[in-house]
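Hi R.,

As promised on Friday, here is the backbone we talked about, encoded as structure tokens. Could you run it through your design pipeline when you get a chance and send me back a sequence?
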């Protein structure tokens, strides 16, 4: 099975220049724990998790700083034609619940544990 068969789209992304306040609001409004971050050309930069935002919000900066320094650039990624089982193994190794799917450096979709569980449920 290929990644494209289970990925969700469209995908909410956050600009690398966004403030922590705006990123936190976007995550909360959409009920997300992780979000891909893109540059001004909409190319993937890395991932941002809600847990990455909490220290900034609590240390008195009040969320006005840009998310750029908080972005995890070592996050695993996938391609639409990638092997789903291989992706599952990478997710386990990296201990992540969300993986962006990139096509030409741009975010084309996202695979979450919920997507994987849905596929398992449909397989019965």
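Update: got your reply. Pasting your designed sequence below so it's all in one thread:
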């Amino acid at each position: 099975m290929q990644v494209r068969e289970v990925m969700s789209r469209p995908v909410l992304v956050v600009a690398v220049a966004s403030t922590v306040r705006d990123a936190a609001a976007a995550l909360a409004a959409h009920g997300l724990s992780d979000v891909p971050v893109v540059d001004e050309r909409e190319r993937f930069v890395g991932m941002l998790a809600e847990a990455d935002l909490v220290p900034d919000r609590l240390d008195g900066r009040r969320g006005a700083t840009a998310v750029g320094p908080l972005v995890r650039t070592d996050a695993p990624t996938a391609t639409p034609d990638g092997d789903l089982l291989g992706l599952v193994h990478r997710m386990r190794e990296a201990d992540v619940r969300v993986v962006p799917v990139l096509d030409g450096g741009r975010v084309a979709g996202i695979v979450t544990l919920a997507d994987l569980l849905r596929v398992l449920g449909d397989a019965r």
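One thing I noticed while checking it: Residues 17 and 24 are 13 Å apart (CA to CA).

Thanks again,
M.
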